[in-house]
């Protein structure tokens, strides 16, 4: 109930700026259950959709069914093409003008496990890809090689799919929209050690945020030792029945919120208005300098669903003209 109330608050703000909101359709209860567990609802569309130019990308997810059929129909009616299951989404592919900033693609744990059981894998260990592996596969040389090949092929696919864009590839840990946000031309909000912005965004101001400070909060420390820091509902740290329910039935719906900084995961309406759940003094000062109006919208259970305002939305049409912010570039600086 509270999650839906927060969605309605967000919709109200968006519609006050004349933004048209389309929502997926939730199907029957049975289609959202698999192997006795509840499947993730279609609540974070940016994690599996992207609109790049006049091309819409969407990945099928278990339990979605026809949740996005009416939205895809609307997109098609506007003269856009639709590509399914290309592993392209705007959580890992971030477009700014004519530049695409691409992080590491999502790789299914079971897919890696199945692949490395094939014979005749070379025993090569590209260490720079070890951190992409789930813990049980970190020391498996076949798994490491599989991830290396998977990422290399994915980057090649993106370059081939978008010949009219400059594609930049980086070793982002997690989703790009959880690492940095280009609020407007000239201003970026970012975690530290993400990229060399003097190269990728020369002349732009960068406001750096510290990593999540959840570990310093006594209440979170209580639940962290029970669920490995994956989720948190404030006030329920000692509710053993609730904890057992989430761990047993919702493990696919949660993430790893100990690593998430929601100040980065903001939704830019236009160059003067940004929707955010929280913002630090440093961000507020930068917004004031750039004439930006921060609009707070509470997402009370973001620490359960591990999804911020940017994750909860996905742009399918913006009324603007695409600009090239770095026309002097001919090749990727990355």
* Rg calc: 20 Å
**Which segments are poorly predicted (pLDDT under 50) over 5 or more consecutive residues?**
117-132
In terms of DSSP E residues, the strand content is: 15-25%
Report the total helices. 9
Structural class: alpha/beta
In N-to-C order, the SSE pattern is HEEEEHEEEHHEEEHEHHEEHEH
The residue-averaged pLDDT reads 83
Ends: how far apart? 44 Å
The helix fraction, in percent, is 25-40%
Main beta-sheet strand count, sense and barrel state: 3 strands, mixed
Tell me the overall shape: globular
How many DSSP-defined strands? 14
What strand order characterises the main sheet? 3-4-5
Write a structural description.
- The protein is an alpha/beta fold and 334 residues long.
- It starts with a helix and ends in a 29-residue tail after the last helix.
- It is globular.
- The protein has a three-stranded mixed β-sheet, with helices on one face. A three-stranded mixed β-sheet has the order 6-7-8, covered by helices on one side. Strands 9-10-11 form a three-stranded mixed β-sheet, with helices on one face.
- The chain has a domain at 104-169.
- The chain is built from nine helices and 14 strands.
- The longest helix has 21 residues, at 141-161.
């Amino acid at each position: 109930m509270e999650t839906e109330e927060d969605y309605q608050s967000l919709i109200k703000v968006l519609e006050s700026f004349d933004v048209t909101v389309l929502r997926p359709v939730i199907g029957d209860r049975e289609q959202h259950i698999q192997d006795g567990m509840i499947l993730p609802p279609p609540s974070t569309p940016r994690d599996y959709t992207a609109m790049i130019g006049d091309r819409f990308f969407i990945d099928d997810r278990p339990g979605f069914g026809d949740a996005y059929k009416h939205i895809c129909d609307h997109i098609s009616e506007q003269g856009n093409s639709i590509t399914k299951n290309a592993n392209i989404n705007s959580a890992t592919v971030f477009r700014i003008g004519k530049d695409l900033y691409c992080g590491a693609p999502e790789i299914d744990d079971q897919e890696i496990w199945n692949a490395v059981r094939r014979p005749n894998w070379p025993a090569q260990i590209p260490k720079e890809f070890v951190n992409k592996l789930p813990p049980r596969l970190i020391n498996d040389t076949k798994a490491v090689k599989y991830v290396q090949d998977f990422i290399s092929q994915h980057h090649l696919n993106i370059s081939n799919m978008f010949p009219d864009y400059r594609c930049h590839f980086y070793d982002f840990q997690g989703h790009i929209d959880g690492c940095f946000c280009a609020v407007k031309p000239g201003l970026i909000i970012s975690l530290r050690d993400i990229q060399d912005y003097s190269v990728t965004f020369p002349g732009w101001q960068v406001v750096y945020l510290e990593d999540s400070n959840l570990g310093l909060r006594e209440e979170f420390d209580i639940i962290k030792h029970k669920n490995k820091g994956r989720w948190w509902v404030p006030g329920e740290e000692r509710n053993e029945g609730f904890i057992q329910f989430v761990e047993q039935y919702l493990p696919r719906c949660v993430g790893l919120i100990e690593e998430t900084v929601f100040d980065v995961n903001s939704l830019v309406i236009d160059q003067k208005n940004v929707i955010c759940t929280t913002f630090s003094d440093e961000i507020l000062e930068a917004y004031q300098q750039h004439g930006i109006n921060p609009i707070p919208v509470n997402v009370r259970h973001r620490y359960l669903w591990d999804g911020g305002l940017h994750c909860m939305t996905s742009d399918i049409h913006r009324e603007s003209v695409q600009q090239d912010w770095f026309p002097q570039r001919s090749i990727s600086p990355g």
